[in-house]
Amino acid sequence: MNTTIDLRSDTVTRPTPAMRTAMAEAVVGDDVYGEDPTVNRLEAKVAEVLGKQAAVFVPSGTMGNLIAVLSHCNRGDEIILGDQAHIFMYEQGGSAAVGGVHPRTLPNRPDGTLDLQQVEDAIRGDNEHYPVTHLIALENTQNRCGGRALPVAYMDAAGALAQQHGLALHVDGARLWNAAVALGVVPARLVAAADSVSVCFSKGLAAPVGSAVAGSAAFIRRARRMRKQVGGGMRQAGVLAAAALVALDEMVDRLAVDHANARQLAEGLAALDGIDLAPETVQTNIVYFNVTLSGMDATRLSGRLAARGVLINPTGARRLRAVTNYHVSSEDVATVVAAVQSALQEAAADDAVSVAGIYR
Ligand code: TLP
Fold first, then answer.
1. Are residues 223 and 270 in the same domain?
2. Ligand 1 center from residue 352 Cα (angstroms)
3. Closest by alpha carbon to 258, among 312, 172, 177?
4. What's the whole-number average pLDDT of the chain?
5. Structural domain range at position 114
6. What's the pTM value of the predicted model, to 2 decimals?
7. Which of the listed residues 250, 274, 308 is the one where a domain comes to its end?
């Protein structure tokens, strides 16, 4: 029996009973030969859901982004992306390290978008001093901006800008499902203007493993070659694709529950002395907050919460991130708020004791 409430990420979600059954019963074959019927079914379904010609199944979101960038760009080309983008922050600089692709970062605005005027200004002219700008990448939802959903009109405008300048647009849609649910649109509409999209099944949708990249048929042929090159060609991967199919069929609409729980958490935390957060900015399942209590920092608060059975990661000196997910209920959220309050009160009491100690 697991009594820990784990808000470190939605990546911690475990497969549902329906997924385990589907995995056990999956019809499989060698996917590198294109012979796994379950993988083929998943790829066709992902392409359809995202409104693209084709898709390729990959082990992780990181690999999906990497092969997408590598399939768009040659060595020395430049990608324009946000300074808070997962591709820039959390992928070990893979597109530069593996693909020789030069990152040109622009500040993400608090709502997760890039200023499209700044994007346009950053596009390089034809000058032999410069790398060749080839790609714009957006992230929807934008994780480090608090899981903000970038709206359809913005996505369309970014796509139009890319097209006008002969660039490609890639969307890191690890949580595109969350964005679609929060905005009340189908995923395909959100990425209609994108040339490629990566999506994940193993985060909010609770599948154990797996992501996909979608785009034109020609682009996905290149991406498939890149996947093989970086060691992502899987064999009887249908056991994983089977869980991803269940994820798409059964787990997308329920993300609204995670979003409601995140809002409840944000409102509960915002009411506490020593916590700073604007609950109205919480749109999906990610809640960033700052601890302002003097003498307390994010690592210490995280430690005190762990001692109370609540796991929340520090993401900065005073900043923490809590991610609601399939295993976290509304009652759990109430428990988490109470645990944060008690951790802060205990810290304040300890502080009072040590101050008293100084003057004794
Ligand atoms: N994000 C993880 C950590 O790496 C930060 C998390 O806990 O949120 N794109 C986005 C927007 C992501 O948030 C992540 C994972 C990925 C790509 C990478 O996916 P995986 O972990 O499957 O490689």
1. no
2. 40
3. 177
4. 96
5. 17-250
6. 0.96
7. 250
